[in-house]
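Reading a protein record of the kind used here takes little practice once its layout is understood. The reader may check this reading against the record printed directly beneath this paragraph.
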Amino acid sequence: MQDRVLLETKRLLLSTELNLKQICVELGFVETAHFCQFVKLKLGMTPTQFREHAAVI
């Protein structure tokens, strides 16, 4: 289950301009803080850092 959520997180961060709150709602997270913790744990960076890093590549 977490793998699917992570895959969808990456897709939404890379292919949309949705803000973090919108992505949280889309993925079923109640709190943005929990979403950010989940992403940081899985990717080693915050959602914003992931988006910025991908934009550089």
